[in-house]
Design goal:
The protein is of the alpha/beta class. The protein folds into 2 domains: about 180 residues, Rossmann fold; about 180 residues, Dihydrodipicolinate Reductase, domain 2 (2-Layer Sandwich), CATH 3.30.360.10. It is built from 14 helices and 15 strands. The strands form 2 sheets. Strands 14-13-12-11-7-10-9-8-15 form a 9-stranded mixed sheet. A 6-stranded parallel sheet has the order 3-2-1-4-5-6, with helices on both faces. Helix 2 packs parallel to helix 3, helix 5 runs parallel beside helix 6 and helix 6 runs antiparallel to helix 13. The longest helix is centred in the C-terminal third of the chain and has 20 residues. The radius of gyration is 21 Å and the shape is globular.
Length: about 450
């Protein structure tokens, strides 16, 4: 990280466990079967497992873990329909509950795919790396600075153990974005003065409360709508745009951030305690700015884009287009999956980014090499958390404040009869962060 990285690493080191001796990667070049376990069996986790099967003929899915058995059974059914001869998951290797990750990691697996709600990323990643497993970790990697520091320390341990940590910030693996960013870094639009990322979209899923559910189960089933589990949508989803823009800015961290954010339309208690819009301004020491807009409100104008403004031109990153002193177009749009049928390549010749990240991870494992995306996945997560926190508090925050933040959104214990970090009031509504009132921690 470009700003206070040494300080951040020193702080993170306090959260790490004992550094184990350097190991050679499991199943380096010449091995046959790579046994893969999936923790978090929702749609993204199931998709990652399918991509892993496509990435290497020696991959076998051998274990599944999730807080809920119905999620496991749904994932298992989908995966067996795709490649039944390479999905070898016996009932004894289906692990359910909050401690499911411990059982899966303790088993005979070489690679672990982490796709549980973001709150659990630090806990699951630490356990996997300590056990000597290669890891694919979905984004974001935390919901508070305490969790991010833990992940950063774990990624440093992974480097020492020569273990892969590949991030689910998938746009860094997109062919169009990669080629466009290379030209940006080569000076195609000059010095970048401003970047704008927009993720203004509509409504998402929700799972109605059932009478047999405890409050903890309701929140876990609807993790997206609770900040302690998902981080709010500025962290859980807009992190993609923030990461792409941060990459274009050569991974420098912002000096300060302020925001105008709130909960205007999505106000029903079934939507937990997150906001429905965020507008964040990130300011950098060199005078440049990033404007990050995220809205989830139905029946509104939608926009999903990143636009970069430089001294010599501008770039529409998603379209792969540069105009100004240099005019260039990739010819394909980023993320275009025209004709994609679940295999490794779409009809337009592009490899889907979710597939590329798995392809490159398994190739690295076979070669006995280490891919470690820890630095940027931690930095982008913390930048997103910084924007959420600026919105929740209404304050202008510094990067140093964020790296030193003591906020920890963890519950006292992980059981379905335990008390979650946030509870509904007598009217059934959850307490919501109030700008100008909610304090920075």
């Amino acid at each position: 990280m470009s700003i206070s990285r040494r300080h951040f690493l020193r702080t993170a080191a306090a959260a790490s466990g004992t550094v184990l001796a350097l190991q050679r990667s499991a199943h380096a070049s010449g091995s046959d079967i790579l046994k893969v376990g999936l923790i978090g069996c929702g749609g993204r986790g199931t998709g990652a497992a399918a991509n892993a099967l496509n990435a290497d003929p020696g991959v076998r899915i051998v274990a599944l873990a999730d807080a809920f058995d119905d999620r496991i059974q749904g994932a298992l059914k989908q995966l067996k329909q795709l490649q039944p001869d390479r999905v070898d998951v016996e009932p004894s290797r289906c692990y359910v509950g909050f401690d499911c990750y411990k059982q899966l990691i303790a088993g005979d697996v070489d690679v672990v795919l982490l796709a549980a709600p973001p709150h659990f990323r630090a806990l699951h990643l630490a356990a996997a790396i300590e056990a000597g497993k290669h890891v694919f970790a979905e984004k974001p990697v935390g919901v508070d600075a305490t969790g991010v520091r833990s992940v950063l320390a774990t990624c440093e341990l992974a480097k020492k153990k020569n273990l892969c940590v590949v991030s689910g910030l998938c746009w860094r693996y997109d062919t169009v974005i990669r080629e466009t960013i290379k030209r940006i870094h080569d000076g195609a639009i000059g010095d970048i003065m401003a970047v704008q990322t927009s993720r203004n979209l509509g409504s998402l899923w929700h799972r109605p409360r059932q009478p047999e559910w405890t409050e903890m189960e309701f929140q876990m089933r609807n993790w997206y709508y609770f900040t302690w589990l998902g981080g709010d949508h500025n962290v859980e989803q807009q992190i993609h745009g923030i990461d792409k823009c941060t990459w274009a800015l050569k991974d420098k961290a912002p000096a300060t951030a302020w925001a105008v954010s709130g909960r205007q339309v999505r106000v029903d208690s079934k939507y937990g305690n997150i906001y429905d819009h965020h507008a964040v301004v990130y300011e950098y020491d060199d005078g440049s700015r990033m404007y990050a807009l995220a809205r989830q409100q139905p029946n509104c104008y939608n926009d999903y884009s990143e636009v970069l403004f430089g001294t010599k031109g501008r770039c529409d990153l998603q379209k792969g287009q540069i105009t100004g002193e240099t005019n260039w177009s990739h010819g394909q749009q980023a993320g275009d999956l025209s004709g994609y049928s679940g295999k490794r390549t779409s009809n337009n010749g592009l490899r889907p980014m979710h597939q590329v990240e798995q392809d490159e991870m398994f190739a690295a494992i076979r070669a006995g090499k280490c891919i470690n995306n820890g630095d940027y996945m931690c930095q982008s997560t913390l930048i997103a958390i910084m924007g959420r926190t600026a919105g929740y508090t209404g304050q202008k925050l510094t990067w140093q404040q964020m790296t030193e933040s003591k906020l920890d959104l963890s519950p006292e214990k992980y059981t379905f009869d335990a008390t979650p970090p946030i509870l509904p009031g007598p009217d059934g509504s959850y307490p919501i962060a109030t700008p100008g009132v909610t304090e920075f921690v």
